[in-house]
Design a protein that fits this description.
Elements: E1 6-8, E2 14-16, E3 18-20, E4 22-25, E5 28-31, E6 37-41, E7 48-53, H1 57-83
Parallel strand pairs: 3-7
Antiparallel strand pairs: 1-2, 4-5, 6-7
Amino acid sequence: MQRPDTVTNIKGTPMPSNDDTRFYIEGAWLDRPDAPRIAVRNPYSEDVIGHIAAGSATDVDLAVAAARPLALLVTLIVEAGAESGGAGKGRGGGEAGRGGTGGGAAGRPVRPRRA
């Protein structure tokens, strides 16, 4: 039986176990060592290769609260672009969907390079 602190890769080489109890929320890693854990399995061998923390309702609330201001900002930017007619334009002023692939330098269509 395999020791719980090591796992093997596809070639049978022992690897350290990968356990992570952190969540990345609002640009920082928050450690939750007391959180319940979920086993991470190798899809090939089905061996347990590590564990991750299971998020609680509190963790979800923290992540949603951190994401809300960014979601509002993105919505405002998209709406401002649509109102100014910026939607559908490629770089350089060319128009996507009119026979080209968007605009290139000086508004010329971008053409794929040949190998």
